[in-house]
Amino acid sequence: MFNLVLVNPQIPNNTGAIGRLCVNAGCALHIIKPIGFDIDEKAVRRAGLDYWEKLDLHVWESIEEFFQKNEINDNAHFATTKTDRPYFDAEFKDGDFIFFGSETAGIPEEILNAHKEKNITIPMTKDGRSLNLAISTGIVLYDAIRQNYSRFKEI
Predict the structure, then answer these.
(1) 152 near 26, Cβ under 8 Å?
(2) How confident is the model at residue 43, as a pLDDT?
(3) What percentage of the chain exceeds 70 in pLDDT?
(4) How far is CA 74 from CA 116, 119, 141, in A?
């Protein structure tokens, strides 16, 4: 239904949990290298439990390769703390790509700047600077599903 894109993820447990989330939400997971772990690492499999085998997984060697093979225009959303536009103001459509950056660096600035009108954020208090990556993907993904629930029920 949707495509979650992880740009350079660094923590295997987060990626495993996001893989499990994708299976349960009927989404594809795109992982863009470099990543901070071996994709076959036990921590990834453990966090994904028995879901990992059911995952629609796509691993890309670089962000350039990803953009060459996937047409990205108004069908994408870029999660970042560097915008004021809340995710719940975005209109998600079936097939959209929802990008999340690494736990340490986020989405590269040049990508955010190239798609400024599609940047979204999760509102937080002044006391926090970011949320866990797996939690963030769940928050945004399930709002996208809420907006497209009639289609989701068909899956």
Answers:
(1) yes
(2) 65
(3) 94
(4) 11, 11, 17
**Residues, the chain:** 155
Give the pTM: 0.93
Contacts of 51 (CB under 8 A, 6+ apart): 19, 20, 23, 24
- 78 vs 109: CA distance, rounded Å: 11
Q: What are the pLDDT digits (tens) for 15-37? A: 989 999 999 999 999 999 999 88
The strand pairing partners of 58, in sequence order, are 30
Q: Take residue 110 and report the two structure tokens written for it.
A: 């040049």
State whether the Cα torsion 23-25-29-35 is positive or negative.
Answer: negative
Q: Are 10 and 43 in contact (CB under 8 A)?
A: no
Quickly tell me which residue has 């690494």 as its tokens: 102
**Spatial distance between the Cα atoms of 1 and 111, rounded to a whole number of angstroms:** 23
